[in-house]
Amino acid sequence: MLERVLVVCALLLATQTAGAVTIYRFTDANGVVSFTDQPVRGAEVMKLRERMVERIDSQVRLSVKKANGSDSLYVRNDLYAPVEVELRLAGVKNVVGVSDQVIRRTIAARSNERLIALSPQVASKAMAYKPSLRSIVGDPQRGVSASGFAYRYPLPWVGGPFRISQGANGSYSHVGAKSRYAIDIAMPEGTQIIAARGGTVIKTENAQSGRGANPSGNFVRILHDDGTMGVYLHLQQGSVSVKEGQRVVVGTPLGRSGNTGNSTGPHLHFVVQRNVGLALESIPYEFSQPVQSLPNFAIGGN
């Protein structure tokens, strides 16, 4: 099994170094699933993207409080991290108190803040407006100035040695702003994953099995003291051992490596991100000790 995983990971690395390489997935007569860069009868083209999806809608909510003919619009942030929000008001009629129909604000962790108060221009007539809220975790004022190279990350696992199966800017799946500088490390399922930097656990998922509904699989997101965030993805179902709001230090056990979400084989996807203004962006970082890349079997490497 591990041999097959290593070959799969090597194919992923090939797409990173050789440009637009197509990867095929096929099942042989014995039911064994394999991957190759050569077209095979009955094979399907793999179309995988590391789309990091973390729904925070239920933890960052808009509410309207009515009193004395006025409406106060509040945002409640139940996350253990600040969030940047954007409130848009459409179809505004008979309203006083809104000079700009787009309002951006950073809401502190675990807080409930009023964004705006609206009153009717003509008291005898009803106000009309349609609010919509968008939110991104992190404080853009802190995150935008943070540099990943200011801190060298200890290896976020126990055991090994393991190797990088896809590095930064890997064209197979590390293509979007959120994942551009992510690193995938091939390792057996059940490998202990530990915190590579101290901070506060702000988001976890632990119940996903197999590919599931979330491309990130099971994961842990940690807010560092400089405003950056470390994210540990594709963890084993039921293995996450930390809770949201918990403070961790370097070496704190977080969970165990798995093969959940958009994953073609057991590995850890580790990425450092920051909020750059209503958008998460991965930033380059370095481990504190060398980690080798897998040999590039798919294009004749040794």
From TrEMBL:
UniProt keyword Signal present: yes
Signal peptide limits: 1-20
DUF4124 domain segment(s): 10-47
Listed name of the protein: Peptidase M23
PANTHER family in the record: PEPTIDASE M23 (PTHR21666:SF294), PEPTIDASE-RELATED (PTHR21666)
Domain M23ase beta-sheet core: residue ranges: 180-275
Top-rank lineage group of the source organism: Bacteria
SUPFAM superfamilies: Duplicated hybrid motif
Keywords linked to the UniProt accession: Signal
InterPro entries linked to this entry: Cell_wall_metabolism_enzyme (IPR050570), DUF4124 (IPR025392), Dup_hybrid_motif (IPR011055), M23ase_b-sheet_dom (IPR016047)
Short name of one Pfam family: Peptidase_M23
Single GO MF annotation: metalloendopeptidase activity
